[in-house]
Amino acid sequence: MRPPAAARMRRMIRNVHDAALAALMIDDPVAKCAAAAALRHDWIARTLDVLEGGDDARAIAEPGRPSRPQLVAPQALSSRHIGSREGHAALLHAIAHIEFNAINLALDCVHRFRSMPAAFHRDWIHVAAEEASHFELVQARLHALGHGYGDFSAHNGLWDMACRTADDVLSRMALVPRVLEARGLDATPMIVAKLRRIGDDESVAVLDVILRDEVGHVAIGDYWFRDCCARRGLDAEAVYLELMERFNAPWPQAPLHREARLAAGFSAAELDRLARGRR
Ligand SMILES: [Fe+2]
Ligand SMILES: [Fe+2]
């Protein structure tokens, strides 16, 4: 009996970059999560090579994703009250969408930034697999509420930033993990409080796992951001603020989760600056 196409494809691919790209282009969330887990398995088993070469600066405008959710402008997203069953599901759906995009974002790093050392690829393969497990955990909570991924509309802000930073690993590390994922650290305690208020302790437990892991993801981004800055002779903390301006990146919303951000590598001086707001 012939093995399934995905398994045959996996056997033909011999390097981490092409394996990450293949997983990135998978539309089906179940298959994408399986591919991210398989990539980590193959990395640990040392069956894939890390190639030496230049970065691939071409953005991937259409990564693999299912036909739903419908992508709309952020302003077009309807806000629903968490006290309603629909609002509760919509909140979990928004988190599932972030996790789905985060799988693609991590895989994209492994695919494109081939000038980076093997440890960089090890880290982002690890992140991709964790994001897949986050997606599965949140999707299970959505199913428990009678919904699935795709039932609500969503925006494409995370992937837009991936496209805008496709040509420079330093910008990617600053703008995605150190801006967008770090905002997740700040937001999670408030979401947890809302879910606790309506008695959804199962989702609270899921968000506890996600927050713990996300500190690690931001720390990985922080490490490689500072590494890129050091290798280019740049002052990391000054460059970070410059990039936030140049990309018109969303400023963190108060209150900052200082403890989580410090654990992820932000300095106290940076957090004081970010807490003062954009000026
Ligand atoms: Fe995540
Ligand atoms: Fe993450």
N to C succession of SSEs? HHHHHHHHHHH
Q: What ligands can be seen in this structure?
A: fe (ii) ion
Low-confidence stretches: none
Counted beta strands = 0
Tally the helices.
11
Assembly annotation: single chain
Distance between the termini: 64 Å
Main sheet: strands, sense, barrel: none
Report what the structure shows.
The protein has helices at 5-12, 16-24, 29-44, 85-112, 118-144, 157-164, 169-197, 201-231, 236-246, 258-263, 268-275. The mean pLDDT is 95. Helices cover 65% and strands 0% of the residues. It is mainly α and 279 residues long. The radius of gyration is 19 Å and the shape is globular. It binds fe (ii) ion (2 copies). The site of one fe (ii) ion (FE2) has 5 residues, from helix 8.
Task: Itemize the secondary structure elements and their pairings.
Blueprint: H1 5-12, H2 16-24, H3 29-44, H4 85-112, H5 118-144, H6 157-164, H7 169-197, H8 201-231, H9 236-246, H10 258-263, H11 268-275
The chain binds fe (ii) ion (2 copies).
